[in-house]
Amino acid sequence: MNAADAAVCRRNLERVTAELLDAAEKRAAHIAELVKACLPDGRMTAEDAASAYGAAVSMLGYGERDGCRARRTLDCITSSVSVADRAAVASAVRSYLENDGLDQYLNPVRSACERPGRISYFKGPGADRAFDIFAASISDPSVSYARDFAAACENVYYGRSQFCILPVSNSTDGRLAGFYALAEKYELFGVMRCAVPHGDGQSRYVLFAADASCAKKTGLLSLEMKIPHGTERLTGLLNAASCLGVSCDGVDSLPTEFGTSYLLTFSADGQALCDLLFYAVCEGCDFEITGVYGIEDM
Fold first, then answer.
1. Are 102-106+215-294 and 118-209 in the same CATH fold?
2. What b/e readout covers 217-251, taking b as 16+ CB neighbours within 10 angstroms?
3. Does 66 score more than 70 pLDDT?
4. Lowest mean pLDDT among 77-86, 131-140, 240-249
5. Which residues pair with 194 in a beta bridge?
6. What region, left, alpha or beta, does residue 103 occupy, with left being phi > 0 and alpha being psi -120 to 50 degrees?
7. Model's pTM, two decimal places?
8. DSSP state of 109
């Protein structure tokens, strides 16, 4: 190894890296101006925002480099820059939307529950402990013991209870796909979660409701969403999340009633999550949000 030559190469790489970072900052500024030029006059609707996104993305130029000796490297860089640019466009366009929050991406609120505060669950040591944890955050909680897990879900579906408790993972088996399928069958939404000691590890429980009206939607959040298995947009979605400051905390393959899906877990503040969801909508990514939790929920 020639130490002197290696030091020169390192300095050259540092210089090129600095140039790349400077170019990235300039590109971000140009993208912001491009978005402004594509916005409609007056009040902007969600449809207008999607149109502005498409118009701005169509004008992102990357050019061609004929005879490039590092074609694969260049294609890889261009692909990464494209995703970063699209994420930047999504964030810029959404910043002009009024009253755009997580509610825009969640299922509508269903009919009122007959028994607000009532929690239904299949009794067991772990579920009892989970109930105590969840009940501490609910106004005027009460309990309804169910004959099995399906009955607990039915109580929420038919409005006899506001919430139900299901185990969703443990240290031994990982994700418990059967309980996610049960939540999907009864159209339940996760609003709170907790961890309970189980043997040498722990079990995680989720408090499910009929809709997201009780979910925390501001501050630091953890969001779970499903997308169809095999989607070509998975990589783009994960890369866009990184560009938008959203952490991906897990990607699981999850059998569901309608096939196999990816279950993705993201964490960030509510605004960054909305940027990611707006990007997903504009990119035509088919997704369903299955739970939103406060980041402090374990």
1. no
2. beeebbbbbbbbeeeebbebbbbbbebbebebeee
3. no
4. 77-86
5. 205
6. alpha
7. 0.85
8. P
CATH numeric code, 102-106+215-294? 3.30.70.260
Please give the pLDDT value at position 28. 81
Report CA 32 to chain centroid distance, whole Å: 24
The residues spanned by each domain of the chain are 3-94, 102-106+215-294, 118-209
**For residue 298, what are its two tokens?**
């374990």
CA distances from 37 to 2, 33, 179 (A): 52, 6, 48
Average pLDDT, the chain: 85
The average pLDDT across 63-77 equals: 56
Distance between CA atoms of 239 and 248, rounded to whole angstroms? 10
Please name the residue ranges forming H helices in the chain. 3-38, 46-58, 71-94, 125-135, 149-157, 177-185, 234-243, 270-282
Beta strands in 215-272 (DSSP E): 220-228, 247-256, 259-269
* Distance from chain centroid for Cα 113: 27
Angle between helices 270-282 and 71-94 (to 10 degrees): 120
DSSP, collapsed to helix, strand or coil, labels residue 4 as helix
Burial class for 157, CB neighbours closer than 10 Å (0-12, 13-18, 19+):
middle
Helix (H, G, I), strand (E, B) or coil at 274: helix
pLDDT at 118 over 80: yes
Is it true that domain 118-209 has CATH number 3.40.190.10?
Answer: yes
CB 74 within 8 Å of CB 68: yes
285: left (phi over 0), alpha (psi -120 to 50) or beta: beta
Any idea which residue has 């500024």 for tokens?
Answer: 29
Given a cut of 60, is residue 205 above it in pLDDT? yes
